[in-house]
Design brief:
Elements (H helix, E strand, L loop, with lengths): L1 H4 L2 E6 L15 E6 L7 H13 L4 E5 L2 H14 L7 E4 L18 E6 L6 H14 L9 H19 L19 H10 L1 E4 L2 E4 L10 E8 L2 E9 L3 E4 L19 E6 L7 E2 L12 E2 L1 H13 L2 E6 L8 E3 L5 E3 L1 H7 L5 E3 L6 H4 L2 E3 L4 E3 L1 E6 L2 E2 L13 H24 L4 E2 L10 E4 L3 H12 L11 H30 L3 E2 L5 H6 L4 E3 L5 H23 L10 E7 L4 E7 H12 L8 H10 L3 E6 H8 L5 E4 L6 E3 L2 E3 L5 H13 L2 H12 L19 H31 L7 H14 L4 E3 L1 H7 L26
Parallel strand pairs: 1-2, 1-3, 3-4, 4-5, 11-14, 11-17, 25-28
Antiparallel strand pairs: 5-8, 6-7, 8-9, 9-10, 12-13, 15-16, 18-31, 19-30, 20-28, 20-29, 21-24, 22-23, 23-32, 26-27
Helix pairs in contact: 2-3, 7-18, 10-11, 10-12, 10-20, 12-20, 14-15
Length: about 775
């Protein structure tokens, strides 16, 4: 098994010298190391293990006595030979009796052999009996030699008991005379087969034990696990099915592992600690990234040493003349093996994932715009119109005119609105209506201005219409008053642009990003994707709308990370501007922030988390618009690193526990001047649009329709109780024709007309009295 899987190994043994390792086939290289017998000093043992470590050999075979096996493994752990990269085979059959609690969390592949099946019923029964006799608990610390002697004595006793013809007698070992029944007992034992503590005890004709099985043990975090077995005829038999290897839960433990962690002195991910004392080592640094590495170390047990990347560069690929692709910056240091991990504001991109591995994102973010806070706007002469949008003002004017005209029409149709202008005359010749068109306009405007008028509706329908108009004016006036107070008290700001679209369209404010950073690469790569998708859309279907639309969205799926990138014409235009003006590209984020802080004509594109950090400390800066994309920061490591999944799971656990949010609050809002900029009160009051007050217009419309139906009902009621019966249609047409003639506010009294023409049918119904027919008004009644 060893020769088929290991190409090289190192054997460490005790006691006598050996000339060659048994069981190794030709072609397998091996090294021999000898540990001195006790009481050799422990220092010498560690010295030998240090030599093994320097030889970079990772496969070791340990052949030592049970009494010193634990000390040997402990010395190997102290030197650093216990870890996920090392493989051990322990030849001692007493491995199961050693306390391996100290080593099972290191992830080391420790394999051993066991002759005793500690789960067999016979073993449990015998150990229970022995513990009862000793009055102490049963343990697995019994040496294999003792159990072999127990089985031998048991088998001998069984033979003597069954051979009852034999009488035992004492034997003097100093005398060469043998026991005459000895051969009989030996032959009986050779033919016997007994279940013992060490398994089935059986011998061949030559007296060697046969048909025994050795369990192959593997050390896991739950203790020793039976991985398979070995027998003389069957050889190695791995009992665990092959697919189960992928189903085993990985041990989230990196004890005895030491990582070189690369950081950049970029706020707030890595910073020099402020102290009046001289600090050394990891104590010199603090920040979000430093705390995150510490939390991961507490969870998985690894050790770490921080090293600073002087140029603060995350890394960019460089193609050499021979076509080789290499990286610089922090990613280049990790790929070159000079560091194991790198943590800073390193964005996970598809290009970087081609050559390096990342953990799960520990922070989500996107590209946004950093700019100075806008200046206060000068007072406006017509600011009193600001509470409502122009659309709402237009609808209000339409509602005012519509309700006034409807009130005029309904008042003409309803008979109750036609009143006697001469109180002294019981049946006047003409009736008068108070709601002329001008009076209707005056009534509605008086209600709108909360002033009222001397006019009062009489009919049910006109009162209904007036009530719903009063409700409308109540809501609109209250909304106007409240929003006007906000506009007059809140300082309005002059915003040069409100999002990336307006930024790209204007030509006053310059904009740029960090040179060679992931933000600049986003704008550089997006136009290429845009052109590819246009061609793809053209070939798929000519009937589909062309990708020359102003904005469209695509989804890119990476095998490791999913990104959503919005590609637009704007990105191409903005990249062309930045390429044509190299002075807008900054060497670092700090330089870009300083330029924004000192100039009114520059905006800086950077990650939203960095913008949030700066706006917590520079109160004259703020973020403009929403995020342009979605991405994340991750910890960089070499591809196919064995600890990638362990660290990723630990990051997810920290996120689920809310620890990442706590760290962000600590370093963004509390430490190093965080929280000095209080959140500004709302500096902008939005005018109320139709979406805000549209409901009250709907209520007004419903009330008007209901008032019309009430007017028809009143007209029908008047016809029903009239002596001269006419159809509803004729009466309605008559009223409409009368309204269209615009005869002012007076019309003839039908009752007076009917009394004069009683018994006569010659008078036309449509005759209207002239002014000479009407009596003159008198201020008093006689």
């Amino acid at each position: 098994m060893i020769s088929s899987l290991w190409k090289s190994s190192l054997i460490k043994w005790e006691m006598a010298e050996i000339s060659s390792p048994a069981g190794f086939e030709p072609g397998t290289s091996f090294s021999l190391g000898r540990r001195l017998n006790p009481p050799a000093t422990e220092r010498l043992g560690r010295h030998i293990f240090q030599e093994i470590k320097h030889s970079e050999e990772t496969n070791l075979v340990i052949e030592v006595n049970r009494n010193i096996l634990f000390d040997v493994l402990l010395q190997a752990q102290q030197v650093g030979l216990i870890g996920a990269d090392y493989n051990y085979i322990i030849t001692s059959l007493d491995l199961h009796s050693i306390d391996l609690e100290t080593f099972k969390w290191a992830g080391t592949n420790i394999t051993g052999l066991r002759l005793v099946n500690t789960e067999s019923p016979h073993y449990v029964e015998v150990m229970t009996l022995i513990s009862d006799l000793k009055q102490q608990e049963t343990t697995n610390s019994n040496e294999i030699e003792a159990m072999l002697v127990f089985d031998a004595v048991t088998l001998l006793a069984e033979a003597i008991h069954n051979l009852d013809l034999i009488e035992p007698r004492p034997i003097d070992c100093r005398v060469k005379e043998s026991w005459e029944s000895g051969y009989t007992v030996i032959n009986y034992i050779k033919l016997s087969e007994e279940e013992g503590l060490t398994g089935v005890v059986k011998f061949d004709n030559e007296g060697f034990r046969t048909d025994f099985t050795l369990d192959i043990l593997e050390l896991t975090r739950n203790g020793l696990h039976v991985k398979g077995n070995w027998s003389r005829f069957g050889g190695v038999n791995i009992q665990r099915p092959e697919p189960e290897f992928d189903q085993i839960e990985e041990v989230d433990d990196l004890r005895n592992s030491t990582f070189i962690v690369l950081i950049a002195l970029t706020h707030p991910y890595g910073m020099l600690k402020e102290s009046s004392f001289a600090l050394v080592g990891n104590d010199r640094f603090e920040g979000f990234g430093v705390d995150l590495i510490h939390e991961l170390s507490e969870m998985t047990g690894f050790n770490y040493t921080f090293r600073v990347q002087e140029d603060k560069s995350s890394g960019n690929p460089v193609t050499l003349p021979n076509g080789t692709r290499v990286w610089n910056g922090m990613i280049g240091e990790v790929l070159a093996g000079r560091a194991d991990l790198a943590i800073a504001d390193i964005t996970i991109t598809r290009e970087r994932e081609r050559d390096a591995d990342f953990t799960m994102p520990f922070m989500s973010l996107g590209i946004s715009i950093l700019y100075r806070k806008p200046m206060a706007a000068p007072p406006s002469l017509f600011s009193f119109l600001s509470p409502f949008s122009y659309e709402v003002w237009g609808y209000m004017l339409s509602a005012y005119l519509g309700v006034s005209f409807l009130l005029y029409v309904i008042a003409r149709i309803c008979s109750q609105e036609w009143t006697n202008p001469y109180p002294c005359i019981e049946e006047p010749v003409v009736l008068e209506n108070q709601f002329s068109l001008m009076n209707a306009l005056w009534f509605t405007i008086g209600s709108l201005m909360q002033q009222g008028s001397e006019l009062a509706p009489i009919a049910v329908s006109t009162r209904m219409l007036a009530s719903i108009w009063w409700f409308f004016t109540l809501i609109m006036v209250s909304s106007y008053t409240a929003n006007l107070a906000a506009f007059l008290t809140i300082e309005q700001k002059v915003e040069v642009f409100r999002d990336v679209t307006e930024l790209a369209k204007q030509d006053v404010i310059k904009y740029g990003a960090k040179k060679g950073g992931s933000t600049a690469n986003f704008f550089r790569v997006s136009p290429l994707k845009c052109g590819f998708l246009r061609a793809l859309d053209f070939h798929i279907s000519n009937s589909v709308q062309k990708v020359s639309s102003f904005l469209f969205e695509t989804v890119e799926i990476s095998p490791k990370t999913v990104f959503r990138t919005r590609t637009t014409r704007l990105t191409k235009k903005m990249w062309q501007f930045m390429s044509a003006n190299p002075d807008v590209m900054m060497e670092s984020n700090e330089a870009g922030v300083d330029r924004v802080d000192n100039n009114l004509d520059y905006a800086f594109l950077m990650e939203s988390t960095s913008i949030e950090y700066e706006t917590e400390r520079r109160c004259n800066l703020f973020r403009v618009g929403r995020e342009l994309d979605e991405k994340g920061y991750g910890i960089v490591m070499r591809q196919n690193s064995t600890y990638r999944n362990v660290l990723s799971r630990s990051v997810v656990k920290l996120q689920e526990r809310g620890k990442l949010n706590e760290l962000k609050t600590k370093w963004w809002k509390e430490k190093r001047g965080g929280g000095s900029c209080q959140e500004d009160p709302p500096n902008d009051a939005d005018d109320l649009g139709l979406d805000n007050v549209g409901g009250v217009f709907v209520v007004l419309l419903g009330g008007c329709i209901f008032a019309v139906f009430l007017a028809f009902g009143e007209l029908f009621y008047d016809i029903y109780y009239r002596e001269d019966k006419v159809s509803f249609k004729d009466e309605l047409m008559y009223e409409i024709r009368f309204i269209m003639r615009c005869h002012g506010t007076e019309r003839p009294n039908r009752k007076f007309r009917d009394n004069i023409s009683a018994g006569s049918t010659s008078r036309s119904r449509s005759h209207l009295p002239t002014s000479t027919d009407l009596p003159s008004r008198s201020p008093t009644c006689v």
